[in-house]
Amino acid sequence: MSVIRQRILADMQRFSRAMIGAVLFLPVIGLILALSSVLTNPTLISETSFLHQVGQLLGDTFWPLFGNLGLLFCVGISYGLAKDKKTEVALVAVMCFIMFLGANHSWLEYTHTIAEKVNGEYYGTGQTQILGFVVVDMGMFLGIILGCTIAWVHNKVSEIELPGALSMYGGAKLTLIVMTPVIILYAIAFTWFWPIMTHGIAALTGFMKNAGVAGVFVYGFFEKFLILTGLHHFVWSPFQLTQIGGSLSVDGQTVSGTQAIFLAYMRHPDLTPIMNEALRFSQQGMTTIFGLSGAALAFYHTASPEKKMMAKAILLPAIITSILTGITEPIEFTFLFISPLLWLIHSTLTAASQALCDLLTVRPWGASGLIEFLVYNLPLPVALTRWPVYVLIGIGQFAAYYVIFRTLVIKLNLKTPGREDDGEVKLYSKEDYRNKKANAGQAVTDEIIRGLGGKENIISVDNCFTRLRVALHHPEHIDEALLKSTGANGVVRNQNEVQVIYGVKVGQVRARVDNWLANN
């Protein structure tokens, strides 16, 4: 059973890596839409002004991306899961997605089951209109299902060599051919099957709402606790991006997920007196600003006197990254491997703060760092989000982290930064640390490849927000010390996959790793 569990976990991690490719773009899209919402907010800017028109243009440009997340995830997941010919697979994914829309619309017409609009829209009918087609409303899940299927079929058939004149139809073209009957089958089956799933999704949403504070606590705990495995995306993404997080009808359109709902309020702050209850699940960013700052201060104050400056050199850049951008791994990985108990407490305190926000009906957008928090919340009426109470809870969270972490570090003699035994862990001066970060930025040197066991040991390379994820033939051949010397904050092993934590520079690391592998 352990082998089966490990295989399932590995498959889930591969899927998580593939999904994050599309997710990485969402913060950029969200911030631009937030700016659009600010510019089109009539309480701030006149509707006749040029800035209002600019905001309207930005909104009209980027809102369709949120309305077509299924297509984005279909392309991103198929690209991420495909073993080869990735560019061709992405093109096949676009074609298959459009084919499904056409086939599903055709079947609904044939069976006379196209829904009637309610007040000029399809909201509540279980159907929606995408790219001009009326289809079963599957949201992001359509892209996930199609993307996984396309990648699976492609990995099975892309290496098949067809004989003679048929050889030109091999590779990705054969993937498209094989997917054709699958697409038609899906288009028919989901007409009957997906309404059942829709009821299930509604039941899950209802359960989370009925669970009240306990539901928010469970959400907050696992969203943080699963970061180690990389599976935390499965916790927050359905709430932020799908109807599991809730749905709202605005201007004749249906928006789903907490982020889209909040952005809708930025355009229409008078929708309700208090922010929609879906936003109960969007306060995990409090920890990135307040909680981890308390933990970092506790680490600094408990460091040995002669090592305080060196500890500061490590902690300060990491906590600034956490506060401003919401990228937490650099600071979290300074204590994750030192004490699993601290990690458990970290997850519990994160969940408790979100539960307290729910108890006090505090619902700002607090899913990430300070920059996003200010951009999203300041333009809205305070009475709508009650964000000052969020700040007060955050200050309390800061104090709780500081007291608990400081007490445990001293009582259990934990080897946090500045407390290591001599010779065990090297601490860096500011100059050393800058050089370390520069090496991470420049990324691929022979040392990184050697640290991964050499080119011949590398199967594939991916990345998420902060981690370089590498599948290896022989994980036991990696050199953790060498990898850390190139700027890595930590290394996580799981079966044949290694996750190397580089922080916010990981995109540059990934690009240069790919370039090195392609040219050596």
Automatic annotation (TrEMBL):
GO BP of this protein: phosphoenolpyruvate-dependent sugar phosphotransferase system
A Gene Ontology molecular function term for this protein is:
protein-N(PI)-phosphohistidine-sugar phosphotransferase activity
Please provide an example of a Pfam family that matches this protein in its UniProt record.
PTS_EIIC
- What InterPro entries does this protein map onto? Glu_permease_IIB, PTrfase_EIIB_Cys, PTS_EIIC, PTS_EIIC_1, PTS_Glucose_EIICBA, PTS_IIB_1
Q: Which UniProt keywords apply?
A: Cell membrane, Kinase, Membrane, Phosphotransferase system, Sugar transport, Transferase, Transmembrane, Transmembrane helix, Transport
Transmembrane regions listed in the UniProt entry: 20-41, 61-82, 89-108, 128-153, 174-194, 200-222, 309-328, 387-405
Q: Which PROSITE patterns match?
A: PTS_EIIB_TYPE_1, PTS_EIIC_TYPE_1
Tell me where in this chain the PTS EIIB type-1 domain is found: 442-520
- Give the way it sits in the membrane: Multi-pass membrane protein
According to the entry, every stretch annotated as the PTS EIIC type-1 domain falls at 6-421
> Mostly located where?
membrane
Kindly identify the residues recorded as the active site. C464 (phosphocysteine intermediate)
Q: Where in the cell is it found?
A: Cell membrane
Q: Quick one: a GO cellular component term?
A: plasma membrane
Q: Which NCBIfam families match?
A: EIIB_glc
Q: What is this protein called?
A: PTS system IIB component (Glc family) /PTS system IIC component (Glc family)
Classification from the root reads: Bacteria, Pseudomonadati, Pseudomonadota, Gammaproteobacteria, Enterobacterales
